[in-house]
Design brief:
The chain contains 13 helices and no strands. By secondary structure, it is mainly α. It is globular.
């Protein structure tokens, strides 16, 4: 994902593209991103999406193991089957292999690994940039915080002896249907994650005056990348149809896929909440989707509260956008209000 001088890129392009990973048609997964650090930014977003994908898969595993009671071999077989369909990806592929790996004693290696995840910081950087640019990368944020919570192993062990939750009842429904629901939940949530990542890149492009080839970025991620997945080609097609696409969720292909998946997505989320299983990435993806599709949100109350305690002003639905007003809520204040600032 090279960025910097376009003139320099033309000299280096033959070397980089020759040594880069190739996809089935021989196309290299390396191309010019843009000027002034844009390559680093795109790579950072790639890693943030990677955090999200890994968290989604781990939450699916948790439900399969703890709620459905599947064995490691059954889970491996499930991921193997999923890798033949829409979820075809590098991470699903290696997850299948992980569930089958045993050590010299015959024990599954996965079952011997402490549940405390590490991180090197790229997910955190993505979240920080999302905050700075006012771009809600909520799924990546939850994935980062999930790793942070997992690393507090001793605290969680102590808390598990004190804090209680709902009585967890063994799963008694159609197991195959619920597995399909989990698959759909991962797929829909992945769409949200990529949508959020692309919105962040477009926000950065506006801020830093970059011209990014969004479809080309998807093609660069098709091979040699941890987030390599089947639907990256569909992202390329979406931006070929509409270079100014505001959100991947609005593309016909992804809109149709989410509509088909959302019933199972909601069933999984409800079952996890009712039985006390944490699914921060799956549930925040659904919350983002539901938030985006609402023409009206309860933020008018937040604006009223801000204006009440800090005279931060608000806009009115019966006036043009960009006009700000202040109410003397108590009858004791004056007319002075603060200036407006929006991240």
């Amino acid at each position: 994902m090279p960025g910097g001088s376009k003139a320099a890129w033309e000299h280096l392009k033959p070397i980089f593209q020759k040594i880069a990973a190739k996809v089935e048609d021989g196309s290299p997964c390396c191309d010019y991103v843009g000027p002034a650090g844009s390559g680093h930014f795109v790579k950072m977003v790639h890693n943030g999406i990677e955090y999200g994908d890994m968290q989604l898969i781990s939450e699916a595993y948790y439900l399969m193991k703890r709620y459905l009671g599947l064995s490691n071999e059954e889970i491996a077989a499930t991921f193997e089957e999923w890798n033949k369909g829409d979820l075809d990806s590098y991470l699903i592929e290696i997850t299948r292999d992980i569930f089958r790996k045993k050590d010299e004693s015959g024990a599954y290696v996965l079952d011997l690994i402490v549940d405390a995840a590490g991180q090197k910081g790229t997910g955190k950087w993505t979240v920080v940039n999302g905050l700075d640019l006012g771009s809600p990368v909520t799924l990546i944020s939850e994935a980062v915080f999930a790793r942070t919570l997992s690393s507090q192993k001793e605290h969680r062990v102590a808390a598990s002896k004190i804090l209680s939750g709902p009585e967890t009842k063994p799963f008694s429904g159609d197991r195959n249907q619920f597995l399909n629901d989990i698959r759909d939940s991962i797929y829909a949530s992945k769409i949200v994650s990529y949508a959020q990542g692309y919105v962040l890149m477009s926000q950065a492009a506006r801020e830093f005056k970059w011209e990014l080839n969004y479809g080309g970025i998807a093609l660069m991620w098709r091979g040699g990348c941890i987030i390599r997945s089947k639907f990256l080609g569909k992202i390329k097609e979406a931006f070929d149809k509409n270079h100014d696409l505001e959100n991947l969720l609005l593309d016909d292909f992804f809109k149709t896929k989410i509509h088909a998946a959302q019933a199972g997505w909601r069933r999984v989320s409800a079952a996890a909440v009712l039985n006390g299983y944490p699914i921060p990435a799956l549930s925040t993806a659904l919350a983002y989707y539901d938030g985006v599709r609402q023409a009206v949100l309860p933020a008018n109350l937040i604006q009223a509260q801000r204006d009440y305690f800090g005279a931060h002003t608000y806009e009115r639905v019966d006036k043009p956008r960009g006009q700000f007003f202040h109410t003397n809520w108590t009858g004791h204040g004056g007319t002075t209000s603060s200036t407006t600032y929006t991240v």
